[in-house]
Each structure stands twice: as C-alpha cells, then as structure tokens.
Amino acid sequence: MTTTSTVASKDGTTIAYDRVGDGPAVILVGGAFQHRAFDPRTTHLADLLGSHFTVVHYDRRGRGDSGDTQPYSVMREIEDIAALIEATGGQASLFGMSSGAPLALDAIAAGLNVPRLAVYESPFLVDGERSVGPDYERRLDDLLASGDRAGAVSLFLTEAAGVPAEYVAAMRNAPMWPGFEMVAHTLAYDARIMHGTLDGRPLPADRWATVRVPTLIGDGGASPGSMRTAADALAAVLADSRRVTLPDQQHDVAPDVFAPVLADFYAGRS
Question: Which residues span the domain enclosing 170?
Fold first, then answer.
C-alpha cells in the first residue's frame, strides 16, 4: 500500500513523499531531473522493495510537489533527508541514484542516522579523460538566470553527462524534454552537490572520510567505462564498501534486476 504525505524540513520547506510497504526504512535519493511524477522506474523500484521495507520515495526540493525555499544550499537538502528519517522512526538506510549518491554520502558525513547506504552510478569524472569546464557552474547559473532552461538542460547533458551534442539536439523534440525543462533550475543544485568530483582528478580523500557504514556501490556492465572507474574510485575512498556490477545494465537500471540485490544488502545478507 502506498500513502502520500509531506514533512516540513528544518527551514520550513514542504517535502512531499510516497511511503510504500512495511519494515526497516529505506529512503530513495534521486539524481538529476528525477521526481515522482517523472520517474516511473524509481516508483517501480519502491514498489518492489516495499515487500520487505518501508520505502520513502520523495521529491527533492524544487521538484514535483516539494517546496523550494531560497537560498539553496546542500545542507538544506541534507536537512530534508533528516526530516524524512525522523518521519520514519529516526533511522533509515539510503539509496543514492546518480548525483543522489554524493548527496546521500554528504548526509551520512553530516551525522544522520543511516545504518546502510547503496549507490548506483554516481557520474564522477575522475580518470582525466573528460571533465566539465572550470566555469561550468557559473555558465549554468547564467543560463538559468536569463530564463534559458533549454540551454541549461543542453549544457548539463553535453558537458556533465557527456551526451553527444547531436543527440541532445534530437532530444529537444522528444516527449521527455518539457519534463527536463520543468526542473532545469535544480541542475544548479546538483552541480553544487557534484562540486569537486567532475574535474577529471581523483575524488577528494577527506569529503567522506567519516562515512563508515556498509556501502554497496553499483554500476551497469553495459554502461560506459567511466561509470566503472567512478564506482571504483568511490570504493577506494570509503571505509566499508563493496562493489557490484550488474550485467547488461546501463544508467537506467532495470528495477527488477536491481531490487533483489538491494534487498539482500539492506537485510544484511550481502
């Protein structure tokens, strides 16, 4: 059974979420663009995990039905997760998808009560083969300040996500493009969360040095090699990590494939 509710974050921002199932709590932390009305894969993942856990699928601030109190800060997003943890009994494991992974890691580093963490394909650029420009965040901010949401989406897709420009041009006519533009302003939030991890250099050794909870780090066997490099780099800086590569999977991982892996991990069976 799914119930929809809201919780007030520390700054008063309303955070909307769906609650599925019963058992130990797991909060799903989405990446760029993701929110409940635009992300059926995560909704399906929540339903599958709900057979064993209390799963919280929420809209990050600025997306969907959640508020967007300004000014933005990563700490305010951490406070959103803290409010959700409090609403589910005071303790919850986390799942961070893509750029939701460093946000989840930052939440644990901030001292939130999180017994286990799983992440999938956080798109760190650490191998020196590709990086965003040094002024990526400023250019993104400038596009958004001028109202050019399409330009902001294009910049993110080409420079941060590495999608070829010709593909992005074709995507502008696709049905999902208006959904991208609707939450384009939150790309600036993800840029702050990813700060220092997209410049082609090794991950900072100190950012998550205090993260000592068991952490499952996943990637897809059919994804670009940079995703595996990023996952290995994260595993190298965490105190208690384990790696899994899902055969034939890409960034849009199939919930039916990933849910059993996550269930075993959150239950302490792996």
Answer: 136-193
Residue 128 lies in a domain: no
Number of domains in the chain: 2
Segment 183-201 mean pLDDT:
96
Statement to judge: residues 17 and 84 lie in one domain: yes
Query: Is the dihedral angle over the CA atoms 256, 262, 268, 270 positive or is it negative?
Result: positive
The string of DSSP letters for 115-150 reads: S-EEEE------SSS----TTHHHHHHHHHHTT-HH
- Preceding peptide of 175 cis, ω within 30°: no
Kindly state whether residue 162 falls inside one of the protein's structural domains: yes
Band (33; pLDDT cuts 50, 70, 90)? very high
Residue with tokens 């696709």: 174
**Residues 14 and 55 both lie in one domain:** yes
Sequence-ordered list of residues with C-beta below 8 angstroms from that of 38, at least 6 positions apart, any chain: 63, 64, 176, 179, 182, 183
Those residues with Cβ within 8 angstroms of residue 241's Cβ, 6 or more apart along the chain or in another chain: 214, 215, 216, 217, 234, 235
Please measure the distance between the N-terminal and C-terminal CA atoms of the chain and give it in whole angstroms.
27
In a domain, residue 72? The reply is yes
pLDDT at 133: 85
pLDDT over threshold 90, residue 263: yes
Residue at token pair 């250019």: 139
Q: Which residues are paired to 78 by β-bridges? A: none
> Do residues 119 and 149 both lie within one domain?
no
The residues, any chain, with a CB within 8 Å of residue 166's CB and separated by 6 or more, are none
